[in-house]
DNA sequence: ATTTAAACGAGACGGTACGTCTGGTCTTGTA
DNA sequence: TACAAGACCAGACGTACCGTCTCGTTTAAAT
């Protein structure tokens, strides 16, 4: 569905020369479109965002948008997740701190104004378009890998329970954050929320 | 937003008599619409479902739909959640069993074909419409209350940790299930998935 | 290509009852669209006329236009030729006067501001769409018949040459007028033009 | 409007030397474009002809087209009328034969497959663009002059009626042919058509 | 041999109209 | 009053084409 994969794998070493022919795309237009999309998402939300409005605010035209992204969903997911943190920013050696950092990181990503505005609509589009689903998920591959890695290290140190499946852990962290965001439209998730959620994920609900 | 509350609480005793005048609604039409909506959701998904198509399959017209539901979202959420289990179906006294039952119940609700097809679109609409959000959430009030109740009982018995916030627990259970459903389009969530998720929520990730 | 033939043959006696069901079309909208089209043709010409602009001026929407006419060309031909004179307005018995009347009538039709603006574009569309061609020509069937009739009468009286083919006569009258209109953008065709053209058609160029 | 007049009057002696510097144009490209335009006109018509398609078939690019012709209409009129006969091919001294030759010449020009396909669209564009109108008409200046000349000679010999205006005669000949072509899409105009039309223009319709 | 200026292939760009689709409302005639 | 049917408003959709512009490359003539 991607109109042009070049923006994804610009420097994919498929050959010695990609031989770019014809007028090159204006990178300022790419940036202006993404910025306009992010602004409009925060201002009017996903449902009210139109390609024409994005084009107008970016100072370009619909044609230029569709040359780069094949649909509103493709554009939005790139504008909403320009960079997903692929590494956990805490020193290793303390698994409890790792989990808290993961929860906080998930909270930070999901409650940014742009993501809050984009994600519900994106979820709907992803459910209807497997290819889009795959592409969005690819953005989070780094996070998933980092969780998996920290969990393996903690297990080696004897810090983590052996029966904890990394995918289940990701689902629990990400799912709790996602649902909390959806249930509290407009309200932030404070550090106390992070603490409470972390407590359950670390010690469980049982005494 | 509800066009007519009568289909929800037909005999709400607000007064002595609502004085029904004119031709009464044909209840077969209500049923046909809901059935057509559920079928189409499973077949073509939320985004491709149109009110006109629902009307056609139900053998009626758009007018009849809008007389009963004020919007596509209102119709779909009623077709997708005809009945949400409001009580936990396990005998009390075993909090671990309670949690597993909750996870399994969430899994059962979220992975039914109709809910799978409807929920992503509903999430998008709910994010844009607080009133709809409120109405859908009301359907789950019973579940939330049940979780809260069981947790309180378990805490009284000393079975549950005192610092477990019931809202966080609901978010973790529902969120993990929701995200798992979204991440595995078309694939079921088996009993092993329930077991693994339950393990984390009961004992936590730490050794 | 006609979106709905009902506006053409509203009372075609195909059966005892057409049984009109559903909300009927608002005839004021038909009139407003045709009026807006004629106005815009005269103001900005065929090429610059857009369906959206017609809809806006008519106080309605594009949907309503396309429900009635399947394309810009279909709409314009109906707006440009609301009524083509189907009879010659001179007393019979003088074939020279008949021809002059025909030339003057052709001049009147072709040099009206709306027809002047519409015809060039219509000619282009007709060449690309045989069905449209047929429909436009049908509007002139009455004129053609009238010419044929007057010619036959004149021949019976011995006034007209026996070898004059009626189709050739129509082509000469209409063609000369059409070309004169095309060659003089914006300029009128006066009575002297009618006299000169009539002279050739009556007496020929030879002495 | 002409992008570059060089293709029309390459050696216009406006100055001592135009001093052609830089890479000269490839004349094979001029030819290929005109041939591709003529072919596509005959195949898909004026409305469906796009500059991109012409470029592709000619094995070149849009840039090369616009370097030579400033618009689709400019290109088409040059492809459709590569050469208009500027003189009448009959021996002088017989005005009736002159007229028949003019009618036949008009028929030959207007019914060639390329002109048939191009003219309706050109008429539309000419009506909207006076400059284009002027340029196309200039191609027919020779024909007009020839008619005028023959008419003057015939009048001097006493063969032609004195009140015949040459412009009216041109309009009658050209107009009748144009309209006949438009009214018979795809059908040829035979010699009998020429005879019948000539008869009216020579002797008139009156007995 | 080098410079220069324009032609060339390729394709992005702004602009604009197209005809379609959907959501949700309104207006008929009939039951 | 419900109902079937379908017209209505409003507005986004994605496509297509026009004519311009900007690259990097090639080709001749002038230096």
UniProtKB/TrEMBL annotation, chains A, B, C, D:
Supply the name of the protein: Bacterial regulatory s, tetR family protein
Q: Which segments show compositional bias classed as Basic and acidic residues? A: 1-12
Cross-referenced InterPro entries: Homeodomain-like_sf (IPR009057), HTH-type_TetR-like_transc_reg (IPR050109), HTH_TetR (IPR001647), Tet_transcr_reg_TetR-rel_C_sf (IPR036271), TetR_C (IPR011075)
Which UniProt key words apply to this protein? DNA-binding, Transcription, Transcription regulation
The record ties this protein, via Gene3D superfamilies, to: Homeodomain-like, Tetracycline Repressor, domain 2
> Superkingdom of the source?
Bacteria
Statement: the UniProt record of this protein carries the keyword Nucleotide-binding: no
Q: Which lineage?
A: Bacteria, Bacillati, Actinomycetota, Actinomycetes, Mycobacteriales
Renumbered to this chain, region (Disordered) spans 1-28
What GO annotations for molecular function exist for this entry? DNA-binding transcription factor activity; transcription cis-regulatory region binding
